[in-house]
Design goal:
single chain, alpha+beta, 7-stranded antiparallel β-sheet, disordered N terminus
């Protein structure tokens, strides 16, 4: 049986570009020391959505490098929106990977806040244990799944929802737990 060559070349992958505050660029794996630091755990005040789920986080959750950029959208009532786009969806018009973060002053129930967001689900939401006070995911069409997390902190109820490309259930759980740490 023939031995494989001692040195194998790896494919060249374009590094994603980010424009949202605090994200920086995502280097290839050989330059990982340049990866932007993770955002602080549960900041006192949420001032943007993109730093809570960086491009490098989305790459990890989606299983590899994809030339993407994150763009902070216009603020929405009580919150912020971030869009993650790749070269593919910029040309096709298909726009998955939208993060919405809302901070409602007071002590509202996270479960009730999430229930409002399940109206777009095509099937019942699946609960995620160990991610905030309330977390779940559900299919919203044949291509996308909505992952939702809610928790109370810093005198407000914080809710994050992100639609991601459909994949394995463990990826949705990982997204929910990551957002719960950072919300």
């Amino acid at each position: 049986m023939a031995q494989p060559p001692a040195v194998m070349s790896s494919p060249v992958v374009a590094s994603p570009v980010t424009t949202a505050p605090g994200l920086g660029t995502n280097p290839d794996k050989s330059a990982s020391k340049s990866t932007p630091p993770a955002p602080p755990l549960s900041p006192e005040k949420i001032t943007a959505a993109c730093p809570l789920l960086r491009v490098v986080d989305m790459e990890k959750l989606n299983g590899g490098t994809w030339a993407a950029k994150a763009e902070e959208g216009e603020p929405v009532k009580d919150g912020f929106r971030c869009g993650y786009s790749t070269q593919y969806n910029r040309y096709s018009g298909y726009t998955p990977n939208q993060l919405l973060v809302i901070a409602v002053p007071g002590n509202a129930s996270p479960a009730k806040e999430l229930a409002v967001r399940t109206k777009d689900c095509t099937q019942p939401a699946v609960a995620v244990a160990g991610a905030g006070e309330s977390a779940s995911y559900c299919e919203i069409d044949e291509h996308r799944t909505l992952v939702m997390i809610g928790k109370r902190g810093h005198g407000e109820t914080r809710v994050a929802s992100v639609d991601v490309d459909r994949t394995r259930a463990e990826v949705y759980v990982e997204v929910a737990k990551l957002l719960a740490e950072r919300l």
